[in-house]
Amino acid sequence: MPHSRTSRVPSPARTTSWLCAVLTVLAACAASAEAVYTPVPWTFTDPKDDPFNPLRYISNNTLSAIAISLVLATALTQTVLLWRYGGRCMLSMLIGEFTWAVGFGVRFGLHVDPDSEGKYIAYYLFIVLSPCAFIASEYMLMGRLARYIKSNKHLLIRPQRITVVFVISDVTTFLVQAAGALLSISHNQKLSKTGEHIFLAGLALQLASFAFFVLVALRFLYRVKTMEPHTWAMDREKPWHRDWRALSYVLLISSVGILIRCVYRVIELSQGYRGHLATTEGYFYGLDSLPLFIAVVVYTPFWPGRMIPFIDKLANVDHIDTPPVAEERPSSGSEEVKT
Using one digit for the tens of pLDDT, what is the confidence trace for 216-243? Predict the structure, then answer.
């Protein structure tokens, strides 16, 4: 009896568990890294010249409150969508949203205690590393889309491998960034500088990897549209929330948001922790938080589990033979005529 070929792909739950475990360890290290310092009189009046304030400004709690409210609302809504419609490939992104919200929560503490080294490190790690979980979901979703429309041949990397290759890349760059972050919190100037360079290398590798993924996705969609017009339009008679093309556009929009953030972070860190980008709050929200929020919230109305009801079955197989829709099934009357 024939059997379908399967391939082992990274489990969303396993990938997320690794990311969360590393984040937890790093946060614990941050909590123990609190330095002893003598408060200076200009802590709140002139934060730009405060040598103990890593941000070099006092974070705006109104903006922090808006950010954490929007992120938590999105995460909770998508939790309901995951429970109702499925879509386990988005689990990594979903949990990443909660850890991202933790980062904004720690930012509240920096408003009243801007010179706290431990709070700053915990905040920075959750804010900078959580998007790695978003990226992992993008990779897994791309492979499932290719299997759904049965156009595997148009992917530069086979669907059985695309998730494996890019998720391994994502985890690797995450670990490089985490290693750099651990070294950068050292009070040894030379070791801290080395950690900063390693962190920058991890961000640059992440940018290169994700940019390549976006090119793979664009090439795939272009080839399907131009070489398989029937496949491209296969869902045109369905409602918008069942059209695979809408989900592919959402994937691209989300990817653009992540790319903007990646470019910003690479440039920011290349200037150093005291550079203009790193010490200006407006850039943080405009080029990091906003693009990332768009990247995750755009999936709320276009939830993959709703648009492709059997998407969870596409994890380890080349494709699934979908049953014909009602209007395509022959009626009993037509069968009698043929006989």
Answer: 999 999 999 999 999 999 999 889 889 9
Instruction: Annotate 185-197 with b (16+ C-beta within 10 A) or e (fewer).
Output: beeeeeeeeebbe
Neighbour-count burial of 144, counting CB atoms closer than 10 A to its CB (0-12 exposed, 13-18 middle, 19+ buried) = buried
pLDDT tens-digit profile of 304-338? 999 998 888 876 655 444 443 333 334 344 444 44
Q: Assess if residue 245 is contained within a domain.
A: yes
pTM: 0.82
Q: Which residues contact 53 (CB under 8 A, 6 or more apart)?
A: 43, 47, 114, 115
pLDDT score for 36: 47
Examine residue 324 and state whether it is found in any structural domain, yes or no: no
Residue 122: phi, psi to the nearest 5? -60, -45
Question: Which residue, among 118, 109, 106, has the nearest Cα to 33 in the 3D structure?
Answer: 118
**Position 338 in a domain:** no
Contact call for residues 93 and 71 (beta carbons, < 8 A): no
Q: What is the DSSP string of 96-118?
A: HHHHHHHHHHHHHHHHH-TT-HH
Task: Give the Cα separation of 175 and 185 in Å (integer).
Answer: 16
What is the span of the domain harbouring residue 258? 12-315
Is residue 3 included in any domain, yes or no? no
Q: How many domains does the chain have?
A: 1
